[in-house]
Amino acid sequence: MKNNAIKTLLCMLLAMLMMLGALAENAARAEETQINLDEVSGELAIDDAGTYVLSGTLTGHVRVNLGEGDVTLILNGATIESADTAGIIAVSGDSLTILLAEGTENRVSDGGSDDDYDAAIYSAVALTFDGDGALAVNGNNQEGISTEDADMTFNGNGVYTVTSQDDGINAGGDEGGLITFGGGTFTINALGDGIDSNASAVFAGATVYVVGSAAGGDAGIDTDAGYTITGGSVIAIGTDMIETPAEGTTQFTLALTLEDTVAEGSEVSLVDADGNAVAGFTALQDFRTLIVSSDALAVGSYTLYVDGEAVSVDGADAVEITDTVTSVGSTGFGMSPEGGFAPDSGMEPPEGGFGPANGTEPPEGTERPEGDRQPPEDRG
């Protein structure tokens, strides 16, 4: 009898806990504002702190402007396509979180004509991405995702596809911002720098494949104050600039400058001495610089293959990882961890620095988008 009474009491307690959990979940949902974007025309103005669940399609933009407070936008199968400015704009507030609802596909595009808010997603406040859904970002004007003197953080297991006419993911402004890749899977294909911070970046657990412009003058990763890799997987390709990870990097990283350009569409793999492919990708643009970082790397010998053929790097058929960060290749100029041009070992910089020679014209086809690299006078 005693055992039966105890079992009954436990069952009652479990039922009460389940009921309290359901009530708490319902209360949390009641605090969310559900918005069907199909019913919105032009601008969706967010003036109050809170959580907003967006679904449907908006031909226009979302503007967050509340002075103080935090806003969370839950993208729950949302498509936002702006004709004349950024798709999502955060002008003021304490922070903006964009959460990708699990199992959903979402898309944000800009209109390609606004130099004040020059990205598909633009924020002047701290910006955090989270959730387990998918997000496609199209930067038709300049950048894909951009902050102005604000930090940007990626958490969760979201899948991100970013294409842009300039930098793919950018933390701009005079002070820049820390970009933290804590989670997620990224494919970034940019016609500027793939990832660019006027401050620094941390790769701590995300899977990142980032491509800088094949036109030259840009890199897969470009920071002013250096970046570190402590986890996850990073593949970064570019053309004539390479910035290697800074002190504080704990994951083995290989940085290569190749003698010849690898063509867009090529199948590329890095293979260890036992014949195991530790990294592989399809080149989304022509490239000549390559950074690979993975927990599959270790001290040892590796061979780079392009379309099934081994590639010589700095005159050798294989490269040796000897340190946490190993750089191989001496053709062209690179980037120091602190940012800025760095000549190859043993070279003296030409008088007047590394700018183009007087009268030198850029190669045909390397024109940049209008307004590129010119910060607006007033960000609003």
Which terms summarize this structure?
10-stranded parallel β-barrel, 5-stranded antiparallel beta sheet, mainly beta, single chain, disordered C terminus, 30 strands, 380 residues
What does this 3D model show about the protein?
By secondary structure, this protein is mainly beta. It has one domain (57-342). It is built from 1 helix and 30 strands. It has one helix at 2-30, and strands at residues 32-36, 42-46, 50-65, 70-81, 88-92, 95-100, 105-109, 119-123, 126-131, 134-139, 143-148, 152-154, 159-164, 169-172, 179-181, 185-190, 195-197, 201-211, 221-223, 227-238, 253-262, 267-272, 277-282, 287-293, 300-306, 309-311, 319-321, 325-328, 334-335, 341-342. The strands form 3 sheets. A 10-stranded parallel β-barrel has the order 4-6-9-12-15-18-16-13-10-7. Strands 22, 23, 25, 26 and 27 form a 5-stranded antiparallel beta sheet that branches. The protein has a two-stranded antiparallel ribbon with strand order 29-30. The protein is globular, with a radius of gyration of 24 Å. Mean pLDDT is 85; it is low at 23-30 and 331-380.
